[in-house]
Amino acid sequence: MNKLYEKYIKTESLPTLFCPGCGNGIIQYAAIGAFEKLDSSGEIPSSDIACVSGIGCSSWIPCYFKLDVMHTMHGRALAFAEGLKLSRPEKKIVVFTGDGDCLAIGGNHLLHAAARNIDLTVVMVNNYIYGMTGGQKSPTTPKEAVTKTSPFGCIDEPIDGCRLVTSLGASYVARWTTAHPAQLEKAIAEGISHRGFSFIEVLSQCPVQAGKSVYGEKDPSKIMEGYKKNTYLFRGGEAKPDKDGRIPIGLLHRDDEAEEYLDKVEKKLKSQGLR
Amino acid sequence: MVYNVNLLTRTQLQIQPNNYLKKVRQGTEVPRREDMDKKPDSRSEVVLQGNEACARAAVYAGCRFFAGYPITPSTEIIELLSSEMQKAGGAFIQMEDEIGSACAIIGARWGGSRAMTATSGPGYTLMQEAIGFAAVTETPIVIVNVQRGGPSTGQPTLSSQQDIYQARYGSHGDYGIIVLSPSSVQEMYDFTIKAFDLAEQFRTPVILLADEVVGHMREKITVHTGDRNIKRPKQRFAVSPSVDFFNGANSLVEGQLHDDMGRRIGHLPNKSGEFIEKINRKISDNVGMIADITTYCMEDADAAIVAYGSVARPALNAVKRARGIKDDRILPKFRVVRDLVKRGVKETMKTDYSHLKVGLIKINTVWPFPEDLLRQAAENVHTVIVPEMNVGKYCREVERVLWDKNVVPMPKCGGNIHTPKEILEKILEEEGVDE
Ligand SMILES: Cc1ncc(C[n+]2csc(CCOP(=O)(O)OP(=O)(O)O)c2C)c(N)n1
Ligand code: SF4
Ligand SMILES: [Mg+2]
Q1: CATH superfamily, region A19-271
Q2: Dmax of chain A from CA atoms?
Q3: Among A221, B4, B60, B307, who pairs with B312 as Cys (CB 3.0-4.6 Å)?
Q4: Amino acid B335: pLDDT
């Protein structure tokens, strides 16, 4: 078995519950690649990293890791992670969440965690669908897409998680896709070492519960090809779809000067003579 | 990077206080600065409000993380802890809602900090899913519910005991839980400390089910002024013993039913059934260790009042009236009459109740239901009055256990607490007038 797998995956818990062709496996592998990058360079030992996730297929990603992991409630991963972080400020917490978990039921926690710029790394797996519950519309489902709960075509304007958290004060924002595993790995490592709220959206595929109507393709490899075709590398300006409707990917926003939440707390306490 | 050094060492201390202190004593470890500052435990008397007493007790009990969201009538707790928690070297956060607050304290506890939140009414309802998560993951947390009148926004400023069943069965699914009900400011203080200890001992969420009356009243109480040496109990009762994060154990905290390794078993009916049974029985099999009641004048009683929380106060007053006991030693600084006058209740006590041999059974641990203790205490009475500030809920439990007695519910809704006279009249009605 692959060395990286042996080091970071609880092999006794395999196989994972992901369907064949699911994007979650690629993201899982990118994440352990990022942990290894930080661990082997000595920057952040993997024993200083814990993972927290919500509910959904994507939230199962960390459950196989040889790390401390909390698999929590639908939408609430960020709240659990903030408590954990505040209790152990010196540690690094990585949150795995889905488009539904993060932007629908967990939307309020996302707003506030981003606004606090608290030192957490969020990997939001956007497969444009509620995968776990069998293919219902999510906050990112494209307009007109037919899903189990939008039988006549989706009418809601999709939510762009990256623009949302950037507007609120997240200090590292990136978007990659399952067709860009190496770049994704690098972004996750950067997000973890960045001090502040890091938000990494991964455009992924759920070939089982969503197909042509959502991605324009059914076959997982074709969906990933589509991600290569329908995206462009962001090089500044506004991180919006271009005139051909292609989605910006890459590092969308980074502010290393932004003050992190725990640092702000420390500063306040010092000014009061409490530290 | 700037780290919170104080917080760090405190948290680490909580993980292995005994070993660490032993090493300090043996001279193999240099004591950290804040331990040299550690004050020896002593006691003093102060006048405190119930909610303040709860907040102070939490700090003494070793709570080092508080997350909350303001709501009447529990707000004083979050207000006080917004400074006191950080002064004690812990962390405080005002979350975006009560769901987040309950989740954050669970996260903090896995980081190694004892953690608490406090709320009322609608906020408590929002916390229910997280309470189930804490139960199934066996996370020791303390949740304070200073009850107000409901349903919905209900009565923000008035008291009730309407959440007695929600405290036991509020989250979906079957689980065991411990719920304590304080009747005085002293008990707000003592039961808060006890809540933390029981939570750790049984690896379970513990609810401090207070109400507006005890939350807002002021009394002179005895408090600890030093620092507590917190012992970490063995995980004797945990179904799946687990290790706090960052100890190299690769703990998996899993909301789905799981085995010792945290691996899901939710799809396996037999294993899941066993798990559910264990998670309930770790509480129900140990009622003897958890249950706590207080009895007054029960030795020769013919009738008993069974009460909990603030209603135990007028209940005790009723017993004292009937028994002609004038001193305040039974429940120190008993001030219910003054409270009642403040609330506009005019009390005249002309009727003679002196022939009534009435006693009080005050339930301190409302859940798990203290069946055996209650049966023993009520063995010789034939009438049992159960006054409570709701439509008459807990009396059903009392009826179930004291099925051979004349159990009389005495519900009261709207926000006013029962008066001693009302309780005595009820007993008179049941027991008859002495001819
Ligand atoms: C409070 C609550 N409501 C609903 C559900 C059911 N549920 C489980 S996963 C899910 C959607 C998950 O979608 P997403 O976050 O996009 O994850 P994916 O499965 O697509 O990776 C829902 C609605 C739940 N578990 N809890
Ligand atoms: S349902 Fe979709 S998201 Fe879930 S595991 Fe299967 S392919 Fe992946
Ligand atoms: Mg999804």
Answers
A1: Thiamin diphosphate (ThDP)-binding fold, Pyr/PP domains (3.40.50.970)
A2: 62
A3: B307
A4: 39
* pLDDT tens per residue, range A238-254: 999 999 999 999 999 99
**Domain range list for chain B:** 5-224, 293-431
Contact B314, B418 (CB under 8 A): yes
SS3 B92: strand
pLDDT in tens, B134-186: 999 999 999 999 999 999 999 999 999 999 999 999 999 999 999 999 999 99
Highest CATH level, class, for B5-224: alpha beta
Q: Model ipTM? A: 0.98
Query: How many angstroms separate the Cα of B316 from the Cα of each of A256, B336, B405?
Result: 63, 10, 21
| Ligand 1 pocket, mutate which of A132, A136, A159, A214 (most atoms under 8 A from CB) | A132
Q: Give the tokens for residue A220.
A: 């997982």
Q: Determine which residue's CA is closest to atom 6 belonging to ligand 2.
A: A19
pLDDT tens per residue, range B52-67: 999 999 999 999 999 9
The full set of domain ranges for chain A reads: 19-271
Q: Does A194 touch chain B (CB under 8 A)?
A: no
Contact between chains at B108 and A87 (C-beta distance less than 8 A): yes
CA of A81, closest CA in chain B: separation in Å? 6
Task: Please state which of the four CATH numbers 3.40.50.920, 3.10.50.40, 1.25.40.10, 3.90.1150.10 is assigned to the domain occupying B293-431.
Answer: 3.40.50.920
